């Protein structure tokens, strides 16, 4: 029964870990979808800015949930810039605009409609209304649109500065320095990935706080199950040491190896002395169980007393009881034993570990 409980709890631990990992992966995937980036040219980026400006203008005019739908912002842009004879990639994020539209589409309380106030040294500044925030967003989008339309020739070329830095680093004072190793780059990349993963979870938790409670519950259940499983394992191991580790008495059954008892039983069976064979076979079983430390050795103990030492729930008690009855009938009761009696006793002893 204890083994079944341990196996059952162990399987629960194994099932909970993939479940927690799956929920975490789903949370990260759902959190990352709104922030996915699309590679775009400068012209596509400017078109996107125009569309966003129109979206903010419509939201500013209507102030409804449909007009201020944050999902219409779309994915972040990865724009390819040409500067200094080289092409670089820059990610343009719109988290600030999504948050603003989401706030603008909600029905605000009267206190929120009055704007955002800041109090400094007993003086309150003029509150900023949502309409002003949307107007500032339009100005920011228009400024980005104008900057994106600047000719690439106006982009500053940093090649001279780069050459100067290379000349400085080539001096003797910097000869002892080394470049970043592949291991350091990998560790930095891994740390960035881990940070992005937890940032995604935090972002998803802001919009779906229930996922945090689910993960916490799974963690508590997993730790509790693992603790219970560990305590059961310790309790099972301690059962083996319930009896003191003392040397067997000289006349106790365990003082003689059970293999020797079994050898004598087979020798008697070969001579057809079935009564003696069952006698030796019984004491081989008692010696085997006694060497397993199921009870302390005692030379004065009777067969019935040995039987009472086993608990009623022990599956070995039924086999030992049947073997004891066979031994008592033939040895103490004077009943003639046959080969079939010895074979039956051998089968019962084998289930007790004597074989």
Characterise this structure:
With 355 residues, the protein is mainly α. Among the domains are: 36-154; 253-351, no CATH class. It has helices spanning 2-32, 42-62, 95-105, 110-113, 130-148, 159-169, 182-207, 210-240, 258-270, 274-291, 303-309, 316-332, 339-351, and strands at residues 37-40, 76-83, 86-92, 119-120, 123-124. A 3-stranded mixed β-sheet has the order 1-2-3. A two-stranded antiparallel ribbon has the order 4-5. Helix 2 packs antiparallel against helix 5. Residues 1-6, 25-34, 109-118 and 240-250 have low confidence and may be disordered.
How do the helices and strands line up, and which of them pair or pack?
Elements: H1 2-32, E1 37-40, H2 42-62, E2 76-83, E3 86-92, H3 95-105, H4 110-113, E4 119-120, E5 123-124, H5 130-148, H6 159-169, H7 182-207, H8 210-240, H9 258-270, H10 274-291, H11 303-309, H12 316-332, H13 339-351
Parallel strand pairs: 1-2
Antiparallel strand pairs: 2-3, 4-5
Helix pairs in contact: 1-7, 1-8, 2-5, 3-5, 9-10, 10-12, 10-13, 12-13
- What summary fits the major beta sheet? 3 strands, mixed
Question: Cα distance, first to last residue?
Answer: 25 Å
Radius of gyration: 41 Å
Oligomer: single chain
Uncertain residue ranges: 1-6, 25-34, 109-118, 240-250
Helix content range of the residues, please? 55-70%
Q: Reading side by side through the largest sheet, how are the strands ordered?
A: 1-2-3
**What pattern of helices and strands is seen along the backbone?**
HEHEEHHEEHHHHHHHHH
Structural class: mainly alpha
Principal-axis shape equals elongated
- The total of helices stands at 13
Number of strands: 5
> Which range does the strand content fall in?
5-15%
């Amino acid at each position: 029964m204890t083994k079944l409980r341990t196996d059952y709890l162990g399987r629960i631990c194994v099932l909970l870990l993939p479940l927690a990992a799956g929920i975490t992966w789903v949370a990260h995937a759902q959190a990352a979808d709104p922030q996915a980036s699309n590679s775009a040219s400068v012209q596509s980026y400017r078109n996107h800015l125009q569309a966003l400006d129109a979206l903010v203008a419509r939201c500013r005019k209507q102030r409804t949930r449909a007009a201020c739908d944050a999902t219409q912002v779309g994915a972040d842009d990865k724009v390819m810039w040409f500067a200094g004879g080289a092409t670089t990639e820059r990610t343009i994020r719109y988290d600030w605009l999504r948050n603003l539209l989401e706030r603008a589409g909600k029905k605000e309380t009267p206190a929120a409609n009055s704007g955002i106030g800041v109090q400094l040294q007993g003086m309150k500044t003029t509150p900023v209304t949502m309409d002003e925030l949307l107007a500032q967003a339009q100005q920011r989008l228009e400024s980005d649109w104008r900057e994106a339309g600047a000719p690439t020739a106006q982009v500053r070329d940093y090649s001279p500065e780069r050459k100067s830095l290379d000349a400085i680093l080539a001096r003797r004072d910097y000869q002892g320095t080394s470049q970043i190793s592949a291991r350091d780059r990998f560790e930095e990349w891994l740390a960035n990935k881990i940070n992005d993963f937890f940032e995604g979870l935090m972002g998803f938790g802001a919009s779906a706080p229930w996922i945090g409670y689910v993960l916490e519950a799974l963690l508590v259940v997993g730790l509790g199950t693992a603790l219970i499983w560990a305590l059961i394992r310790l309790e099972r191991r301690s059962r083996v040491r319930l009896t003191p580790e003392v040397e067997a008495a000289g006349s106790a059954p365990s003082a003689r190896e059970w293999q020797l008892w079994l050898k004598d039983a087979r020798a008697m069976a070969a001579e057809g002395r079935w009564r003696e064979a069952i006698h030796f076979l019984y004491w081989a079983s008692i010696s085997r169980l006694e060497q397993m430390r199921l009870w302390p050795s005692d030379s004065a103990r009777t067969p019935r007393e040995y039987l009472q030492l086993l608990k009623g729930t022990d599956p070995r008690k039924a086999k030992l009881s049947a073997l004891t009855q066979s031994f008592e009938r033939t040895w103490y009761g004077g009943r003639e034993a046959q080969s079939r009696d010895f074979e039956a006793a051998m089968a019962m002893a084998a289930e007790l570990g004597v074989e």
